[in-house]
Specification:
mainly alpha; 8 helices; 63% helix
Length: 270
């Protein structure tokens, strides 16, 4: 006679399948992060990570490592019916969910404080714009995508040593300028003009000409406007992620209950 079981195969392989994908995705992201660190020579001088406010590659490494560990525990825990690994998966996923929920609520209640922290974060990264190529690429992408320049406005680039106006006396061409990512669309010209932001912050520059050449609004205001314009999309993505996390926690705990019930039945038969 076949052995009866209280462990739901559907729940078991749902948890297993979900975590296999999560595990592989985490390993892929972690691999990209480690490869990027190797290419930048970070392993030769690990102190480089501390030289910038946020190393973009570090985000890949941390997120990838968390996804890899979490996916591994859920995958193996479900396949081997290991209660310890499943509880670890459920607890960590629950902590991540409540941290995200807390950040969302606090961000809504203390909007001005978060706005100031975002500005401070951008200002710190502007200072280190040329210290890390990945950071530079991200800043350029953000300014181009959100059509903004600096945190509060384009004058924030005075805080970067390469664009500081005091270097004008030394003959620096970038002095009193901004990065090319602050420049507006240059029409049908397929050649990127990396010098389009030169001298735009000089006092002699006509404000109208400056407004035609570069984005004058700061990234904090533009990001806030983008959130308002895409509120339903952002909310939909956030709710979707939250539902996946809640389902993961529920399925993991359901599987734990099934395993415990099966073990209790075995012990009763003894």
């Amino acid at each position: 006679m076949a052995r009866d079981t209280e462990v739901s195969c559907l729940v078991k392989y749902l948890v297993f399948g979900f975590n296999v994908i999560f595990w592989l995705a985490g390993g892929f992201i972690l691999g990209i992060g480690l490869w990027a660190w190797f290419e930048k020579g970070t392993f030769d001088n690990i102190a480089k990570v501390a030289n910038v406010p946020v190393d973009p590659v570090l985000i890949f490494v941390v997120v990838g490592a968390i996804m890899f560990i979490l996916g591994f525990s859920g995958c193996v825990g479900a396949l081997r019916e290991n209660i310890i690994l499943l509880r670890f998966f459920s607890v960590v996923l629950g902590i991540i969910f409540f941290v995200e929920l807390a950040v969302g609520v606090l961000g809504f209640v203390y909007k001005d404080w978060f706005r100031q922290q975002l500005d401070n974060f951008i200002q710190a990264n502007i200072v280190h714009y040329r210290d890390d190529p990945d950071l530079q690429n991200i800043i350029d992408f953000v300014q181009s995508y959100f059509q903004c320049c600096g945190g509060k406005d384009y004058n924030d680039w005075e805080n970067n040593i390469y664009f500081n106006c005091t270097l004008k006396a030394r003959g620096s061409r970038e002095a009193c300028g901004v990065p090319f990512s602050c420049c507006k669309d240059q029409g049908d010209n397929n050649v990127l003009n990396t010098q389009c932001g030169y001298d735009v912050r000089e006092e002699e520059t006509n404000p109208s000409a400056r407004a035609l050449a570069i984005y004058t609004k700061g990234c904090v205001d533009q990001f806030e406007s983008w959130l308002q314009d895409n509120l339903f999309v952002v909310a939909g993505v956030a709710i979707g992620i939250a539902l996946l996390q809640i389902l993961g926690i529920c399925f993991a705990n359901s599987l734990i209950s099934d395993i415990q019930a099966q073990k209790a039945r075995w012990q009763f038969r003894r």
